[in-house]
Task: structure prediction
Amino acid sequence: MAEHLASIFGTEKDRVNCPFYFKIGACRHGDRCSRLHNRPTISPTLLLSNMYQRPDMITPGVDPQGNPIDPKKIQEHFEDFFEDLFEELDKHGEIESLNICDNLADHMVGNVYVQFKEEEQAASALRSLQGRFYSGKPILADFSPVTDFREATCRQFEENSCNRGGYCNFMHVKQIGRELKKKLFGRYRRSLRFSRSRSRSVSPQRRRERDERHRGDYQDHRDRGDYHGSGRRSTDRSTDRRDRHDSNRDRRRRTSSPIREGSEERRARIEQWNREKEENP
Ligand SMILES: [Zn+2]
Ligand SMILES: [Zn+2]
Result:
């Protein structure tokens, strides 16, 4: 019995825990929920609450003045945000997934979930985000219990058939275009094989143990010396890597995507991150 209790403690099987908080990392009852929201003290996943401010915030597809917005512009606005954030978070380590909610309910609107490969990377990102602002709004970041996004996302939404719309309690993850996905996540290609074979829904403890076992398989690309540019690698990804090192050294010199507009605007926003940090220590 005690063993059984120990095995369910902190999981959704434990009836005192809120299944929504456990699975989705957000519950519409917030702090007033009658069940427990077990906030993890460490996790590979961070939640940045309500961070993405969509241009059609009041009514989907329509600007605050009531004029319809071209869906292409909405997507561009989103992809600019996604790229901006990705580059910022990538400084702390390899991003396993970056999911931004398209939901409209208060507890989920604009929620950003970033899962790093390692808990320490998430901890580093959290430290750097605390007290910072983005587009004039304070960033509310915390560790999240969500590590299995397949459990957290709405399958109907993926099939375009969710009739709960923006008020669904499961994640409606907004997608980026294939080109941007390749540009951002392509830099991790070496490790893709491993992350695909990684089975889902394992406890952090078990994952750690398994990671220990597999460490030998993928030690080289996680080697920090390499990450910071020892330059000993000369694969077809060397260009990608160089870009990344440059961007780490001096973000303003970064050549951002020539494909889409708004890179000037984005650069201005990136500078704003830091300026605001200095003004709001
Ligand atoms: Zn709850
Ligand atoms: Zn749904």
Observations:
- The chain is about 45% helix and 10% strand.
- Residues 197-202, 210-259 have pLDDT under 50 and may be disordered.
- Residues 256 and 272 are 17 Å apart (CA to CA).
